[in-house]
Amino acid sequence: VPFFFLGGTAVGVGRGDEVYPTADIGAEYLLLVNAGIAVPTREVYGNLLSELTNPGAVTKMPISLSAAYDALSGSHQRKGEFFPTLHNDLELSVLLRHPLLREIKQRLLQSGARGVLMSGSGSTLFALFDSEATRSVAQQDLQETGWWCASAHTLSRAVYRQALQLS
Question: Order of strands, edge to edge, in the sheet holding 125-128?
């Protein structure tokens, strides 16, 4: 929820209650895919409990936040260059328990996606493409499976706030 008060590109840490604005990054060719798998949030966090309580996690977070902020705050990065710096700590736990989501991720990458990540605690995946044509081919391929797919793009903080009539 805190992210939606801010909008634009941001780094979220902790339970999502800490959100730090960064320079907006435009991504015109995103594809969202959901196969209809139920992934209970409680289960996802429960499977990650050992990592969250690991003493090493305390020293890892400031470095991760700093690295993420530096990566996302670069001036006018080439489209997609930021994607390798993005990470979802919950993804590994979910993909290990839900092979279909691993399959979807692999299919998106084989379709030409520059990168694929799970959104939040799952089960929607999002992929970044270089062009409308590549995204459309991937979307058509995945929709034939009956999975829900939607084209998307990012919004700058200014456009988001304007849409909400906040500025």
Answer: 115-118, 125-128, 30-34, 148-152
Q: ∠ at Cα 136 (132, 137), nearest 5°?
A: 125
CA distance 101 to 138: 15
Q: What is the pTM of this model?
A: 0.76
| pLDDT tens digits for range 105-163 | 999 999 999 999 998 888 899 999 999 999 999 999 999 999 999 999 988 899 988 88
Instruction: State how far the Cα of 112 lies from the Cα of 127, in Å rounded to an integer.
Output: 9
Is the preceding omega at residue 64 within 30 degrees of 0, hence cis? no
Paired tokens of 59: 């020293």
The Cα–Cα gap between 148 and 126 comes to: 12
Give ∠ CA 42-86-40 in degrees, rounded to 5.
Answer: 15
Of the pLDDT bands very low, low, confident and very high (cuts 50, 70, 90), residue 87 is: confident
